[in-house]
Amino acid sequence: VPVARIRNFCIIAHIDHGKSTLADRLLQATGTVADRDMKAQFLDNMELERERGITIKLQAARMNYKAKDGQQYVLNLIDTPGHVDFSYEVSRSLAACEGALLVVDASQGVEAQTLANVYLALENNLEIIPVLNKIDLPGAEPERVKKEIEEIIGLDCSGAILASAKEGIGIDEILESIVHLIPAPQDTVSQPLRALIFDSYYDSYRGVIVYFRVMDGTVKKGDRIRLMATGKEYEIDELGVLSPNQIQVGELHAGEVGYVAAAIKAVEDARVGDTITLAYEPAAEPLPGYAQAKPMVFCGMFPTDADRFPDLREALEKLKLNDAALSYEPETSSAMGFGFRCGFLGLLHMEIVQERLEREYNLDLIITAPSVIYRVTPVKGEILYIDNPSHLPDPQHREKIEEPYVQVDMITPEEYVGTLMELSQTRRGIFKDMKYLTQGRTTLSYELPLAEVVTDFFDQMKSRSRGYASMEYHLIGYRENPLVRLDILINNDPVDSLAMIVHRDKAYNVGRSLVEKLKELIPRHQFKIPLQAAIGSKIIASEHIPALRKDVLAKCYGGDISRKKKLLQKQAKGKKRMKAIGTVDVPQEAFMAVLRLD
Ligand code: GDP
Ligand code: MG
Q1: With a 6 A CB cut-off, is 52 part of the ligand 1 pocket?
Q2: Does the CB atom of residue 136 touch ligand 1 within 6 A?
Q3: How far apart are CA 311 and CA 537, in angstroms?
Q4: In this protein, which residues make up the domain named Tr-type G (predicted)?
């Protein structure tokens, strides 16, 4: 097809507003996927993803569509991940498109994620087509939601499409609008090749499969390509389109979307946002907007069974092949032994990796509480970036500590504004802005230390608003604060993996609640266990766990053997996620206790 009949678009939506269902419907309506092959939600095909109802990885689909004008069009749908942790990837997918369907649940309205994605789309100059989804629901209020979109986003909604992805209403109108409202790509076939990578994944047979949009020029099978950020060169083994299964083609032109396989060893070598050009006829400049995704949240991971350290290393190596944003370094903890300090884009990314390590690699891990990166100016020497609280230099060796701040934007029904303000304030938030929208809905913005957000801010926001509020955040920079290292001592030994960095004014309360929590979580032993919180040499809170009085088997009166066995088994199970720290068995929950302080 000529460039004039190509349309590249994505769907932006808040979680659960119907993005995947609509994508499926479009694939069906265009005959791209036969009805009988239609697995529910074709585009979200990772197991984890489906379970959590989130979109983690980007994928693309090429559809052939015969429009009402009688012409044959190619519509490329580029799917975007639906979570703030992956907003860089979202921005690169949007950069590969000329337009976007903005899907808003007509029974809900605009949410924080809708807004964040719309701003990204506007930055990329996309044509935005508003779609009010779920109009089949009795609670749908398309008129109210239209007004909301107009007021918050300033987008004309007179032409908004009323749709039900579930019932198949409005699908034809959506397809026609894509053809008529979204501009065709520019015809830059005669220029040197520049293709934007918007996704990649590792395949153990073919190496990395790279998804891209050709922005300028032409790419052919067998071409020698260069990745402009890394400078590395490869021969194309396989070139194709996604319909949505991979179908090989000989060449792809400006405006088209496809994939290559070129024996690339890890996704790190073909990063999202990088530009593909030809080795023998390279473009002068790469496409704008390339950045390397940086981990923002860190934690320690230790196998409960020390013998499995090599397995953990191997598993991380494998995951890394497919995840350029994951970082890991060996860490030796005096309390926990050998493990890794791992870095993630955000909390969801962290949870996904942890879950995969446990599920797919069958590892039992003790995971320490998440931390952020602190910027420390020492009295002498160069600036340090500290991702592990136990590495914070002592006060006499440091001039200042700075911590990352984010702007958090929330959208909530009016009645929860008070409780969300209170939450933000107790998390050291600085009020920025509040606006009333339609029908008692409010936007609320705060600047917060990222450290306070990565604990349980999201869960608290959800529970305080009964699930009605939504939030987004983005990094705004580093700020100096009077921060201190809080050490936890179990049985008089400091436990490095429980150390944390807290604001001086909160240290006393955090220390007190933490030792109380640990007292609940650590089981009784044959001896008394002192628990303390300290700043430097100063103990600020202390408790103890009394010694165990009775042996668990004493109950059995020495008689019933099978009952004895059962009890022992039960005990063993309870011990599964324990780490022996000195002579004390500490359960996994204890390392996360800081996330559950009230
Ligand atoms: P996503 O998170 O944006 O990808 O949303 P999904 O497509 O996974 O949809 C979330 C939920 O809303 C699922 O249970 C869908 O079945 C449901 N859903 C999607 N579209 C519609 C619709 O038009 N009407 C109704 N009633 N439910 C819908
Ligand atoms: Mg989805």
Answers
A1: no
A2: yes
A3: 38
A4: 4-186
